Amino acid sequence: MSNEAMIWPMIAHVVLVFVLYYLLSKRRVAAVKAGRATVAQFRENQQEPEDSLFVHNCLKNQFELPVLFHIGCLALIAMDGSNSATIILAWLFVATRYGHAYIQVTSNRIRYRRSAFMAGFAALVLLWIWLAIWLAFT
Predict the structure, then answer these.
(1) Quick one: how far is CA 84 from the chain centroid?
(2) Are 10 and 68 in contact (CB under 8 A)?
(3) How far apart are the first and last CA of the chain?
């Protein structure tokens, strides 16, 4: 497989981030219009309504563990180390981020969120292990 195939999961994750920004804006505007929040509350992000807070927290999560995902993918591309297995791991990571995000912005049930997180975490650990092995033997 070509290195370019590793870029598509990265693009899919970026799409998720853009969707979450849109959803956050939509929920905040709705909260202000419904009188559940004021614009001033969002200035310092204090006392945010629960439905937009879930999205806000989810959006912040996309800049934590996924940073290691993007760096790992770029390193694999730069080192010509991507293969079918790493591409599958990348897609698995992104799929779990979508699942995690869906759970967080809807029911926000920790029991299910944790499972999605741990599956993505495992995929990312395996991706980085492969990168380390690839670097050690090339």
Answers:
(1) 21
(2) no
(3) 18
- Range 64-67 contact pairs with CB under 8 angstroms and sequence separation of 24 or more: 65/117, 65/120, 65/121, 65/124, 66/13, 66/97
What is the total residue count of the chain? 138
Distance CA(29)–CA(24), nearest Å, equals 9
* Residue whose entry in the numeric block shows the structure tokens 């629960």: 50
Q: Residue-wise pLDDT tens for the chain (138 aa)? A: 678 999 999 999 999 999 999 999 999 999 999 999 999 888 888 789 999 999 999 999 999 999 999 999 999 999 999 999 999 999 999 999 999 999 999 999 999 999 999 999 999 999 999 999 999 999
